[in-house]
Design brief:
38% helix, globular, seven-stranded mixed sheet, alpha/beta, 524 residues, homodimer
């Protein structure tokens, strides 16, 4: 494979004629060849028409064939080898180990969904057989299965150039559900996007799938992406990025003649609550792990710990001193894009200049475009008085909120918007306090974790990477883990169908051996 | 119990001071005593505060206690006896057998959800145990369960004064999920609403539930209902009614600081497709059953067959003659409200005056406020040319669209918006044609049924009473059947929780014996 700068529209490659997008070397800000041509509205039309044409065939592929397709995508990504890793390192400034780890995660995610497809629970097959003798009225034969919702638009994230991008969680779960996917590539890593796109395009060919199952477009502005969400053939949207961007797509989707679901994962400051006995027992260890989580990947994780809540006390002061010491030796790191670097510096400066905010510690300074970690502190009173302090600073910055008592801590927690994660550090003696906080934690976050940090999102069956707005636009869902497939499904009932016409999942003979719920009881 | 005209706010009864609502005798248009006082914004504030206060306790009630609560509501509704039936008949004009049948359905629905609660699958319990020895990184212990989404606002329907109203499907599924409910009573049956509300209020007391679990408010205008949807403590909305009403609530919910899901079931014309061999074999029988479905309950069902699609042919003409003959003898019936009667007459008149529409037959005329059934026909060409012909006429009116060939029929089908149901009449020789249509049928409707009609919605595990917009606002859901509970749930992950702190559903000991998915495999 090689990077050409072309759009991938079904099985075609097309030179976009609508402006140029350049990959940027994250460490230097220099342009990387070649330039990428932006899609025109005609290119978009072709991609949408192909996706629509592919939908009915693709959604009825056998579970076996669809699972194999997902595995072929995974293999084709691995086959890109070092070309992918190196381009991705250049475009993002992330180190090799991280990129290789993220590639493993991306591939593992595709395999997980292949397993989910084969197992078949996602079809939610339900059979309520006819009751012809029931009085006063007979019951018809009624069966239900989930079908794919329709073609899906995916907007990748800048901060996970593989795992939340072209072949990331949204694409993998949508393809698993039976939905064709059109990806709008993130302009922060266009070369990475094209390479991965080529791997998917080849898998479509390798597996004889209808070509419209996948297209990849570049957008030199915002018009093409907005038109993608507005297109009547698109039936759902996956997005990972800023709150402003996500809300803009939500508004477009809601204003359509047929409104459609948008799964936007947007903004989270991921509070960390340090309970008193845990702090008394082990503030130095917690501080060290906290700084590790804060500075991981230059702090550019959706689950980065941007807020620390604790009771104001000598043990908290010990934590602050230990965190400050750990920061002293923490290296600066190249940020994903010059724009993200500038926003980070502005966010840090605003905190530094805030009259009620105190600087606790800073990381090592770096070269141009490298983010320097920063830790601040304020009081719960000041925090509650100024909404600006609740806003996410994307990068390795965090704010400690010193609370006079548990009631104040709960008030701060209650004042927060929805979160992806909340971490609580506890010892056994803190469990009563944890019990008092838990109902609020559950209402505020998609994942509550003890004695750890939210960074490092396991791709598994029990993961929720979601949460109330604005963590996501749809608190009923997760964008990581096997449950993510549910976002791209809708139930359909079939009444009084003869066996020969029923979809395979609903036949009495159950040829794929999937779990069926018969009269309300699961038969696996 | 007796009808007092008061609001039910938690365990209190309150005289609303914001205008008056009167029950109306459907058959005469006369007022029924007593008047109902409209809620003020202060009343609403009290109801929301109580619901919010009840939420954390109610959502953690044991499955056993919650199921018993639902069953107690059912028993208390039955205990209202004839007072409920007679008031409901007066307010709606519906006959005794229908009201008694609907009461049985309402009670059955509550029992179904009691069973769903006891069974526990709705909790979606998932356990991915820790893998401390995994390389390169250990895996944490991660567990997931669904929790209730929060207090829910329910807007009942005029056409199902019991089954889609105060204790109807939305309320039953929200309570089953663990959500407190605030019902805005439909002004078409305020006395029925109050009686059923009293039955729920008493069940809250009987079962020692927190009082905020249920409130019932009357609204003399629209402000209180709109403020209910906008209130920050409300986390989801159930609505059954007009497209305009549903879209208005969707817009309010989307404009909130925290947008919330709205489950609005709005508008459907429920196409009936008559395939050629079925018509050739049995047009007279189909015509008779069609007229029966069309005129059932004065045609006031969401699933009323408002559109018939067939190939223009002598067998269709035979169907039209037979339907016209059946209509000749079909009685007029009192409609739910004078307003609904007037809208129906206007809709019928517009069809009658349409230059491309032909009258096929009419039912018997009736007295004032009784709807007279009407059947029209047009061509696929005319139908495609005028969007007005696709609009729902709520009542016993239907339009036959004569198509020159299968391609034209498919074009008409494709031009339609989302539907609750599509019925297809087939014989074995039509199965190839059915196969060609099926992908489109699935994309257009929540339920596809063969050789029957959509009226009569079974409350069971495999039912989908839903469909693409505008049939509903959320095609991923159903408002009837056990799957309806999913609308009021959201998943939460718990990471590295000790057994003692884990919610019961996620403990290794599984004290409630619910299905748990362990490492991706269900253990029932």
């Amino acid at each position: 494979m090689s990077i050409t700068g072309q759009l991938l529209i079904g099985q075609s490659t097309v030179r976009g004629q609508n402006g140029e997008i350049w990959g940027i070397e994250a460490a230097t800000g220099d342009r990387l060849s070649p330039p990428f041509g932006g899609a025109t509205l005609d290119d978009l039309e072709t991609a949408c028409a192909l996706a629509d044409a592919a939908f009915d065939t693709y959604r009825e592929t056998s579970l076996h064939d669809r699972a194999q397709f997902l595995e072929t995508i995974a293999n084709n990504i691995l086959a890109l080898g070092d070309e992918l890793v190196e381009r991705c390192m250049s475009e993002t400034g992330l180190p090799r180990a991280r990129i290789e780890g993220e590639r493993a995660r991306t591939v593992g995610q595709l395999s997980l969904f292949a397993g989910v497809v084969r197992e078949g629970s996602f079809l939610e097959a339900r059979i309520d057989p006819a009751l012809p003798d029931r009085t006063p009225l007979a019951r018809a034969d009624i069966r239900l299965r989930n079908i794919a919702i329709g073609p899906v638009a995916v907007f990748g994230a800048s901060n996970f150039p593989l795992a939340f991008s072209v072949a990331g969680g949204d694409t993998a779960s949508a393809l698993a559900a039976g939905c064709p996917v059109i990806v709008k590539a993130h302009s922060a890593h266009p070369g990475t996007a094209e390479l991965v796109g080529q791997a998917i395009q080849k898998a479509v060919r390798d597996c004889n799938m209808p070509e419209g199952v996948f297209s990849l477009i570049f957008d030199s502005g915002r018009t093409v992406g907005q038109n993608l969400v507005a297109d009547h053939r698109i039936k759902a949207v996956g997005f990972t990025g800023s709150r402003g961007g996500g809300v803009a797509l939500m508004n477009i989707a809601a204003a359509r003649e047929e409104p459609i679901p948008v799964y936007a994962e947007m903004s989270s400051i991921n509070p960390v609550i340090l309970l008193p006995h845990a702090l008394a027992e082990r503030s130095p260890e917690i501080a060290k792990l906290f700084v590790g989580s804060l500075t991981l990947g230059a702090g550019q994780f959706c689950t980065n710990p941007g807020l620390v809540l604790a009771l104001h006390s000598p043990v908290l002061e010990a934590f602050e001193r230990a965190a400050s010491a750990a920061l002293d030796t923490s290296s600066a790191a190249t940020m994903l894009t010059p724009g993200i670097y500038r926003s980070y510096c502005e966010g840090v400066e605003q905190l530094a200049l805030h009259p009620s905010v105190e600087l606790i510690g800073k990381g090592q300074p770096g070269t141009a475009l490298q983010g320097q970690a920063a830790l601040f502190a304020t009081t719960s009173e000041a925090f509650l008085a100024d909404r600006a302090l609740r806003e996410e600073v994307f990068g390795a910055a965090s704010l400690i909120v010193r609370c006079p008592d548990e009631a104040a801590l709960l008030k701060v927690l209650t004042s927060l918007e929805g979160q992806l994660t909340i971490a609580v550090h506890t010892s056994a003696e803190d469990h009563h306090a944890l019990g008092r906080l838990l109902p609020t934690l559950e209402k505020k976050a998609g994942r509550v974790l003890l004695n750890g940090f939210g960074t490092g999102v396991e791709v598994c069956h029990a993961m929720v990477h979601g949460g109330p707005f604005p963590a996501t636009s749809d608190t009923r869902t997760t964008s990581v883990g096997s449950l993510a497939i549910n976002r791209f499904l809708r139930p359909v009932s079939y009444q009084d169908f003869p066996q020969s016409v029923l979809p395979s999942a609903l036949k009495d003979s159950n040829p794929s051996g999937i779990p069926q719920r018969i009269n309300g009881v699961i038969r696996p």
